[in-house]
């Protein structure tokens, strides 16, 4: 990755019904390797703007700035129109991409986080609680990766331990008890594979969370906002509707892990990403996901306010499809959805 001089992006604003700014700080924009030509153009635009602000009026460079801006935008459009699966993987992992808590601040009113699994401990990789989404009470569960070094360590890079999945089950139980729809935000490289997690029953916790998703009598809407990795993602994404952002990925294993398994060479991650059909476009064709949520040109991090609105609209539409449905009908639809995947593949 590279950072362009002066390429500063502003704090993203929260939803229209809130006035305060997001907590994410102003930072220098981060560019991925394949975005270097765009970085150079946008850096030149920033330099010319600085010169223009210092100019006493004897020289006008506004026209040149406008031309460069148009050229940079067109380069961005052209680049993102033909991303490879590996490039989409890089975008899905972009450090500036909005995470679970960003969506919570933007979309959920009166959010009350709930902690702990009532068995062992609190797991910060999976966040959850109750709140109101566009006037409707819901239970929200999601992976949180963290937006800076301290946050990533606190949230374990979004890789949940068994306690996280047991907390998710507890929240789903609560949702069913009070007849509240569940919305999940998926963004994890996978469940944490540490020794302690395995000793405390990681596989069993994931299986029980997946089973609870299937047995819920209330609508469950999952949104893959970044990485959807392995059972760590499926555990909260076995939903009535699976939505996926345009440049997100959803996979049985990370491209690096798959390359290590198949070819014993993690350097072949690019080949693995291409072969595994991990992009939203491939998965929609295969019937694995239901809806692709279009991202702003350049990725979700380029215009977070637009991304939040589009995601909120997609969630609202999905929830509306299950309005008035009985618990049995909701369960039946979910079961049929996943059985159909097996029949078609």
Q: How would you describe this protein?
A:
- With 345 residues, the chain is α/β, with parallel strands linked by helices.
- The chain folds into 2 domains: 1-10 and 34-82, no CATH class; 90-344, 2-enoyl-CoA Hydratase, Chain A, domain 1.
- Helices cover 47% and strands 18% of the residues.
- It has 14 helices and 10 strands.
- The strands form 2 sheets. Strands 3, 4, 5, 6, 7, 8, 9 and 10 form an 8-stranded mixed beta sheet that branches. Strands 1-2 form a two-stranded antiparallel ribbon.
- Helix 6 (162-177) packs parallel to helix 8 and helix 10 packs across helix 11 (269-275).
- It is globular and about 65 Å long.
Summarize the structure.
The protein is α/β, with parallel strands linked by helices and 345 residues long. It has helices spanning 36-54, 62-80, 85-92, 100-107, 149-154, 162-177, 195-199, 202-215, 230-237, 255-263, 269-275, 280-286, 304-320, 327-344, and strands at residues 2-9, 27-31, 108-113, 126-133, 136-143, 182-188, 220-229, 241-245, 249-251, 291-293.
């Amino acid at each position: 990755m590279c950072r362009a001089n002066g390429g500063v992006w502003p704090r993203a604003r929260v939803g229209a019904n809130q006035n305060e700014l997001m907590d994410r700080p102003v930072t220098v924009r981060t560019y991925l390797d394949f975005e270097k030509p765009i970085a150079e153009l946008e850096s030149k635009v920033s330099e010319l703007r600085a010169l223009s602000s210092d100019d006493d009026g004897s020289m006008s460079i506004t026209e040149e700035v406008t031309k460069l801006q148009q050229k940079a935008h067109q380069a961005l459009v052209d680049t993102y129109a033909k991303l490879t699966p590996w490039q989409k993987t890089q975008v899905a992992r972009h450090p500036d991409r909005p995470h679970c808590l960003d969506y919570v601040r933007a979309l959920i009113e009166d959010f009350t986080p709930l902690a702990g699994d009532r068995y062992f401990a609190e797991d910060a990789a999976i966040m959850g609680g109750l709140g109101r989404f566009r006037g409707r009470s819901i239970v929200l569960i999601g992976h949180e990766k963290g937006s800076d070094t301290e946050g990533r360590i606190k949230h374990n890079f979004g890789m949940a331990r068994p306690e996280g999945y047991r907390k998710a089950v507890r929240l789903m139980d609560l949702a069913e008890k009070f007849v509240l729809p569940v919305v999940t935000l998926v963004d994890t490289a996978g469940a944490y594979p540490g020794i302690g997690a395995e000793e405390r029953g990681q596989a069993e916790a994931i299986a029980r969370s997946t089973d609870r998703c299937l047995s819920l009598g209330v609508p469950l809407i999952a949104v893959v906002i970044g990485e959807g990795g392995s059972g760590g993602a499926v555990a909260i994404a076995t939903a009535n509707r699976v939505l996926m952002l345009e440049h997100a990925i959803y996979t049985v294993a990370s491209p690096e892990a798959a390359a290590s398994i198949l070819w014993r060479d993690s350097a072949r991650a690019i080949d693995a990403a291409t072969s595994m059909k991990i992009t939203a476009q491939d998965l929609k064709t295969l019937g694995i996901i239901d809806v692709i949520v279009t991202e702003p040109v350049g990725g979700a991090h380029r215009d977070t306010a637009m991304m939040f609105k589009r995601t909120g609209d997609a969630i609202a539409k999905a929830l509306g499809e299950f309005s008035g449905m009985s618990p049995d009908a909701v369960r039946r639809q979910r079961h049929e959805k996943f059985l159909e995947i097996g029949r078609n593949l």
